[in-house]
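Why this split exists: single-chain examples teach little about how molecules sit against one another. For that reason, every record in the complexes split bundles all components of an assembly together and asks for one structure covering all of them. Below is a record exactly as it appears in the raw files.
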Amino acid sequence: MSEQQQAIHVVDDDEAMRDSMTWLLEGEGYTVACYDSAASFLAARNDRMRGCIVLDVRMPEMSGLELHEKLEALGSQLPIIFVTGHGDVPMAVSALQRGACDFIEKPFNNEDLLSRIKRALELENQLAARYQLNSAITRRLEQLTQREREVMQLVVAGKLNKQIADELDISMKTVEAHRARVMDKMGVRTLAELVKAAMTVN
Amino acid sequence: MFIRPPSRQPKQTWLWLAPYAAIGIFALAMLILTGLLQWREQDTALSALEGDMHWAERTIEARLHAHQDFLTELGREQEFRQLTYESFQVRASRYVRDNPEISAIIWVSTDGKVEWVAPNESTAAFVGEQLAGIRLSALQEALRARRELFSPDYAGADQRRANDLILPVQQGSADLGAFIAMQSLEGLLRVTLPTSFTSRYSLSVVDADNREVFSNSSVRPTDRRISGAISLDLPSNQLGLNIVAYRGGGAWLPFVPAALIVFLTLIATATLFQLRRHAGRRAETEEQLRAAYAFRQAMSQSLVTGLRAIDLDGRITFVNAAFCRMTGFEEAELVGIAPPYPYWPPEEFDQLQRNIDQALGGQAPPGGFEMRIMRKNGERFDVRLYFSPLIDAAGQQIGWIASMNDITEPKRARVELERAHERFVTVIDGLDTAVHVADARSGEILFANRAFQHIFGFDTVGRDSALVTAACRPAPEALALDPSDIDPATLPVEIFDGELQHALSGHWYHLHERAIRWVDGRTVRVQLAADITDRKHIDEVNLQQQKRLEQTSRLITMGEMASSLAHELNQPLSAIANYCAGCVKRMQAGNYKLEDLLSAMQKASDQAERAGKIIRRMRDMVKKSDPNRQPIALAELLDEARAFADIEAQRTSTQIVVDLPGNLPKIVVDRIMIEQVLLNLIKNGIEAMHDTPVERRRLSINARQIDARLLQVEVADNGHGLAEEDVEKIFAPFFTTKQEGMGIGLAICRSIIEFHQGHLWVEARREGGTVFRFTVPIEESDDE
């Protein structure tokens, strides 16, 4: 599991805005990273990056929306809070429709911004946890043999050992042995846990 | 049917002389032959004649000698007085009876007195008759000569020629008298010569002077050549005998062959002559025919019209050069071919077959067929084919001759012409402007377009223009010259150009009238009447609006400015809020360092100052409500304008490139107004590039001094450009290509620039987009 700290990534071309934002957010105890353009953010970005992005919509060269599209294409799961000037509402709506996290209109209320950031970070936490869980289960599944995977699928589907033995044309004893190994490899103790793990990845 | 003409033969004149010569030679030979024969025959006849003649001579002489002998016997007896009258009577009468040519024998005395006559019954002489004349002198001659002699002939009792054979009788020296035998010459000849002789010859007795005394034939012999003359050897007789042979079978007989030869020769010559004349005429006709044929051949070959003859079954019998040229086939490939012909395109088969059937049936239309045929190379072209019957020399129809014209070009030209005319009519009729053409003298309307007819009525053509357009017509004194008295040499000439109100409808028209030369050469007036009612109305409205606009423009631009200012104020205000909120949070938490707070507060105050500057710009603009022209650097104006425009430029990622020469003079303008113009043009440019790819969103601004008085500024974009028709319109108030625009901007810009004695115009850029240019006055140098 990656142990990177959650950070707030501020992408804004206006220096005063970046500086004041940093001042405000650091005062709240967040870690803040500033980028003066979409390009510099893309350069610094990696898959283990945690936290959320506070993104100015209007920027020269690459706008906030374009950056959003790029990030989606890269599979980034970081929530984005768009900061817009007035009159950019239609733009923001289209951003929201594409599943971005949130937007806030300048000039904004501090509390409003902070609460949105808090919500975004929580969401990111959940997403990261699920991602990590998924990857753990996936790793365990990869350890199963072909036969064990078949047995597991039938078990999860609610079949009895006898039915499984008939279907796979093996003996009851063999089914039981496979089943025990599946439970062991998947790190679960009950059938309910096994089903939950299977559903998580499917 | 189309036979070749006979080849020309050289004229051989000598050939024509040969028959003549032959005929001549033949005739000559025949004539000579005939002559020779004739001559021989004549020769033979002549010798026969001579024989006969001698025989006759001898016979006659013998007879006469016999008479002499008889008289001599009588004379001797008388001499001796032994003869009695009775014995004389008996013997003389018997002798006379035996010799019929003797009419009587008489005894005369020496003085010529008839004493005895025997026979008694003779009427030739009477006893006692006295001889007279030549008979008496002949008697005396005989007595004197004492020998017998013949008297000259005389007319006897029956008027026949006769003569006397006188035998004087003497006794010693004394004359006793004389016996005279009176003989008829005719009788002599008739008795002495047999009829076979007299029938062959014409005998005539001639006297000493060769005068004819007697002839046994009243018919004159024609041919004197076969004749002979003998003199009878009698004492004192001068009589001769002419003998001419009668020609057997007629005198003309010898000439018949010659005549026939001559006749035949003449006929032969005449025939030959006629033949030659005929041949000459034929040659002449042939010559004409050849010339005519050559002419026709040349004509048919030089024609551009294709000719094709077909027989009654449609089989091609003749094609001329033009036809071959048009179709691309050789003559040999076409002649003898029956339909379908090789130049029929497959897709036209049915139509062409119908046409040829119709033509062969004699039903070809007089205007010909219009059809599409194919060259050998497959190229199609249009032709017109005219059919006419082909008649031979005997007046019999032997086929059809068709002339073919390539009408591709004419057809295309016609279609072009029609299209051109159609276009012309469409254009003219499509005009809103009323156009009409009227004769300059009579005023008769020769042409009127639809717009004219809409205004003045639909039956105007042919009527008098003065009546039709009475409601909207320039007064005669307003015309530049009298239209009825224009020198044609000066055409075209303008007559009138002005605005008129239609008296009835109240519409305003811009009338433009010119005198031109019409298509038929006469002078006409062409009048164009454009309805300018709307424009007039708009002009008025515009005038009022312009005034209002000028009043409100400043306010409107200030409003726009305020909006963009407010926009920009967000930035420092947000920053200030952040700084402040950060400080508050830290102080509330009690977890802060003083210098951090100070620094943040300092930054907040900087941002407040930034906001203040923005506010001040706005206040400046509001404050300077009157134009205030002052020298100012263009660069300064541009910086301020860009300060506003940058927000928009950043939002749309547009690059603004300013490229000003370093030594630009200051311009004398109202700062705010020109800033507005620049801002407006920049914003327009940015918006125009809305659909341009981001990397090409580039707005370039540059300037240069164009003369001592003016500076020209250019604002060029790479945007969608302007439609041609919009180039002028964009400066009209309320015209806009933008969805949200108000259409005030450019109109005001132009007003502002014109207020500065400059110009504002727009051009399309060759590489796409548009470029706005305006000129503004520059500061005049003091050192001049």
